[in-house]
Specification:
Radius of gyration: 21 Å
CATH architecture of the largest domain: 3-Layer(aba) Sandwich
CATH superfamily of the largest domain: Glycogen Phosphorylase B
Structural class: alpha/beta
Oligomer: single chain
Strand order of the largest sheet: 3-2-1-4-5-6-7
Number of strands: 13
Length: 374
């Protein structure tokens, strides 16, 4: 088969978990003897790119700089994108040229939701993979204490537009029941097969024995919605109260990195963004991972990575996270509550267990997906 993989962000502009899933899936598809090509976006001012292994179609989009725009400008951009009639023509031209047997769409904001309609028009099998709530809210985020934003008249209009454009693919996959339910209860995918399949993760971390028992770890984007500032405030309170001989390691980068470095929180080390063996070492040199998200996460990759490293995890009790961890390891994303959970984890540090998750490799993930579109 020839398979079209679509995601709004592709290398070299990858940011998070969706791109990791797409890359792992592509490798499994190729290993299974199929042909792959990609459709994604690039910054408007980016030049041509040389991609050697597979064909990539990068469509220019302001999506890459959207997080820097004021709210009103973002809203206008999203509304205008629904009236962009040149993008469907670009997408149709690519599909007619490549004639894929299957389209697997992921995050589509910036690429074009019309791919759902085009798949139906051209009689191409279509499977959609959910990663967040981009179809429900332009930000793709639902923040703690602000769930009502998904029920405003403007949000409902947005949902109606995305629902009609994407339609009902042959099958829809989500890694958490929470994420699937959020879409179903708003009228999405009424005629689609629905499957809950854990995100794939390649074996990248070999767990070691004799981990330290006093090192807490954060891995992720250093952004407000990831709860990094919340974590530092709770950490400050935890250290002030207990005088514990513990260390917090922050791995990652983002727009808030320089700001939080200036907070001068005691016993905190910043290591920036790590990849490969350096990231694996960070997991193996910690005693507990902290996931303090302020947004309703789908199924965080860092929890899967911690599972590989046999590393205990405490995390915000939001979204799909609750499907991955024992309730004792969850907390409300509030300063005092997180401070208490840090103290709990420190006291029980020699008794904590890593998440009890069955990990799915890319090959098994692809074969499961394949069973839904045959």
């Amino acid at each position: 088969m020839k398979i079209c993989l679509v995601n709004n962000l592709l290398a070299p502009w990858s940011r998070g978990g969706a791109e990791t899933v797409v890359e792992a899936l592509a490798q499994a598809i190729v290993a299974d003897g199929h042909e792959v090509f990609f459709i994604g976006t690039k910054p408007v001012k980016a030049g041509a790119l040389k991609i050697q292994e597979q064909r990539h179609y990068y469509l220019p989009s302001h999506y890459h700089s959207l997080n820097k725009w004021p709210y009103l400008f973002k809203l206008i951009w999203h509304l205008v994108s629904f009236a962009n009639y040149s993008r469907p023509r670009e997408l149709k031209k690519i599909l007619l040229k490549e004639t894929p047997d299957l389209i697997i769409t992921n995050n589509l904001i910036g690429v074009g939701l019309d791919l759902g309609r085009l798949a139906r028009e051209l009689n191409i099998k279509h499977l959609h993979i959910l990663h967040d709530i981009q179809l429900l809210h332009p930000s793709g985020l639902m923040l703690y204490g602000r769930v009502g934003e998904l029920a405003t008249p403007l949000a409902k209009l947005y949902q109606r537009l995305t629902r009609v454009r994407l339609g009902s693919p042959r099958a829809v996959v989500a890694p958490s029941q929470w994420l699937m339910n959020e879409h179903i209860k708003r009228g999405f995918f009424a005629d689609s097969l629905q499957a809950i399949i854990p995100n794939p993760i390649a074996k990248t971390i070999n767990a070691v024995d004799n981990k330290p028992d006093n090192v807490f770890l954060f891995v992720g984007q250093v952004e407000e919605h990831k709860g990094v500032r919340l974590l530092l405030e709770a950490w400050q309170d935890f250290i002030d109260r207990t005088k514990a001989e513990a260390k917090l390691v922050i791995v990652g980068d983002g727009s808030q990195l320089e700001f939080i470095k200036k907070l001068a929180t005691p016993q905190v080390e910043f290591r920036g963004r790590l990849v490969g063996q350096d990231l694996a070492d960070a997991y193996n040199q910690a005693s507990c991972l902290v996931v303090p998200s302020l947004c309703y996460e789908n199924s965080p990759t860092v929890i899967y990575e911690a599972t590989q490293a046999n590393l205990p995890v405490i995390a915000s009790a939001l979204g799909g996270i609750k499907e991955l961890l024992n309730p004792d390891y969850l907390f409300k994303p509030e300063t005092g509550v997180l401070s208490d959970k840090l103290l709990w984890a420190y006291k029980k540090r020699r008794e904590l267990l890593a998440p009890q998750i069955t990990l799915t490799g890319p090959v098994d993930y692809w074969q499961t997906i394949l069973s839904y579109i045959k």
